[in-house]
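#struct-help
A.M.: can someone run this one for me? Single chain, 211 residues.
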Amino acid sequence: MEEWEKIAESFDETRRHAWKECIDFIEGMKGVGIDIACGNGRHLKYMEKKGMAVGIDIAFNMLRVAKKNVKNAILIQADAIRLPFPSNFFDYALFIAALHNIKGRENRIKALKEMRRILKKDGMAMISVWSKWQDRWRRHFMLQALYKWRELGDIYIPWKRGVHAQRFYHLYSLRELKRDVKKAGFKIIKAWSVKKVAKKHADNHFVIVKA
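D.P.: on it. Structure tokens below:
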């Protein structure tokens, strides 16, 4: 958590714009929504236009930044694997570029199960993670698979904008992401991969799921 507290301000400078995939998803939703690991609130700005919106993040400094960027969203410091909400409460959820920062598959599945718990029956969610086989890290993970060090996909990635911090990531294949969301009890509605920065191989995976 300390690394995210340290980089909150500089993170905000590089994450000003919401992703189109998320905007399109939000536009199709109504009711009460939650953004799990909301960061600087870039997607909450769209969610709060649709109704009641809640953002949670484990890093308090991220919430301080988010407070400057949103108008009506409720912001709460919380851990994704222990959400402080009643079951069957939210109509929809976002879990964008954050599941991959949770150490250990067991904990990642716990977080997914928590999201499913707080969603109403047939509630929808969008999840995104970084791709294991993207251009930047492809060779690294091929070697990791060959020599079997660490859990395949685990890596520490430095943040170098203004402050230095080592951020944990577990990068996914799309197949692995689909496996984990199914393990958490979700029904997959759509799964796809995109290139956000990479030139050759997809660097982000998305899934839309139903509770």
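A.M.: thanks! The chain has a mean pLDDT of 92.
D.P.: also worth noting: Strands lie at 33-36, 53-57, 74-77, 90-96, 119-130, 154-159, 165-170, 187-194, 204-210.
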